[in-house]
Design a protein that fits this description.
Radius of gyration: 16 Å
Structural class: alpha+beta
CATH architecture of the largest domain: Orthogonal Bundle
Largest sheet: 5 strands, antiparallel
Mean pLDDT: 82
Order of helices and strands: EEEHEEHHHHHHHH
Distance between the termini: 38 Å
Shape: globular
Helix content: 40-55%
Length: 199
C-alpha cells in the first residue's frame, strides 16, 4: 500500500495531477479541497494517498490532510458510494460541513452533490453517523479532468474538471454562467461555482 508521496508537481488539471517522485511520475486523482491548497507546477508537495485496486485498474487518490483521506475511506464503505461520489463529496462539502450534514440529518445539502439522490443521502446519514462519532478526526479538518492536452482558457479547464467530478454539462454551463471568471484561475473558478451550487 502506498500511504504517501512527496515530489514535484509535473501536471495538474482537476481532478488529475502527476507527482514526479525521483523521476517516477505518479498519476493521482484528488478532490478540489486538496487542489485549492496545491503549490504551482514544479514545486514540491507531500500528499497522503489511498490506492484503490479494481479488476481493470489501480487508481491512486491524493489528499492534503488526514481528515480528508479518512472521510474518503469511510465513504467508500457506504453501500452505493464509490470513489467518484466520494471525491465529489469532498470537492463540494468540507470535512466539517459533511459531519454537520450527517449530524443534523441535512439531506437537502447532500443532494446538491452530483451523483447523490435522496436515497443515497439518507443512506449516508444513517451509515456515516456512527463512523463520524467513532472517529473524531473526521470533524477536526479545515472548513473549507480528463487526461490529455491542457485547456487553453481557465474557464475551459474549470468546465472539464466539473464534468469530470460528475456534474452534467448543462448544469456546469449554468453554474459557470453565474461566476465572474475575469482574472481567475481554474481552481478559483471551480471554488466559486461549487459555492454557488451549495447555495
Amino acid at each position: 500500500m502506498i500511504g504517501s508521496l512527496r515530489g514535484r508537481i509535473a501536471f495538474k488539471q482537476p481532478p488529475m495531477l502527476m507527482l514526479d517522485v525521483n523521476g517516477v511520475g505518479y498519476e493521482l486523482e484528488a478532490p478540489m479541497s486538496t487542489f485549492y491548497e496545491l503549490p504551482g507546477l514544479g514545486e514540491e508537495v507531500s500528499l497522503l494517498t489511498h490506492l484503490l485496486v479494481r479488476d481493470d485498474a489501480h487508481i491512486l487518490y491524493g489528499f492534503g490532510s488526514a481528515d480528508e483521506r479518512l472521510l474518503f475511506r469511510n465513504l467508500l464503505k457506504v453501500s452505493g458510494v464509490g470513489a467518484k461520489i466520494a471525491l465529489a463529496i469532498l470537492s463540494g462539502i468540507s470535512v466539517d460541513g459533511f459531519a454537520h450534514c450527517v449530524r443534523s440529518e441535512d439531506t437537502a445539502s447532500l443532494v446538491k452533490v452530483p451523483g447523490i439522490g435522496r436515497k443515497t443521502a439518507e443512506r449516508l446519514i444513517v451509515e456515516m453517523r456512527d463512523r463520524i462519532d467513532a472517529a473524531p478526526a473526521i470533524t477536526a479538518g479545515s472548513i473549507a479532468a480528463p487526461r490529455g492536452a491542457k485547456a487553453s482558457r481557465p474557464e475551459d479547464e474549470a468546465y472539464s474538471a466539473l464534468v469530470a467530478l460528475g456534474y452534467k454539462p448543462a448544469e456546469v454551463a449554468r453554474l459557470l454562467k453565474g461566476v465572474d471568471v475575469e482574472g481567475l484561475g481554474p481552481e478559483e473558478i471551480i471554488r466559486n461555482a461549487l459555492r454557488a451550487a451549495a447555495q
